[in-house]
Amino acid sequence: MSALNIKKGSTSHSAYDLKDYHPELERSHTLAVLVDNEAGVLARVIGLFSGRGYNIDSLTVAEIDHKGHRSRITVVTRGTQAVVDQIKAQLGRIVPVHQVIDLTVESTAVERELALFKVNGTGDKRVEALRLADIFRANVVDSTLESFVFEITGTPEKIDAFAELMRPLGLSDVARTGVAALPRGA
Question: Where in the numbering of this chain does the ACT domain appear (predicted)?
Answer without folding.
Answer: 30-105
